[in-house]
Amino acid sequence: MSHIDIQRSRDEATDQPSSGGCGCGGHDEALPELDVQTIPHAIRHAAIFGAIESLRPGAAMVISATHNPVPLLGQLAQRHGDAFHTRYLEEGPERWRIIIRNAR
Question: With CB atoms 3.0 to 4.6 Å apart as the test, which of 3, 17, 55, 101 could cross-link to 60 if both were Cys?
């Protein structure tokens, strides 16, 4: 198990020298892919937006769905304008895969 530092405050924690990562040790170089069908429908869009909005500037992820997620992409544009770029990697008929990149 790796060493974990517990800080007394957020300011103290963020004043620490950074290695560029979060320290979880679980990073890989491949783009993360989120199969949205695995998320319960009642919380699906909220969970997807949580993942998208957590992307650091320049980072990207892939979402995968069994239908064309046009409503989700419309909501993304409505909420964030052109802050996120999207591009289809696969366009059905069984699977749609879209790369979403934080353009900020």
Answer: 101
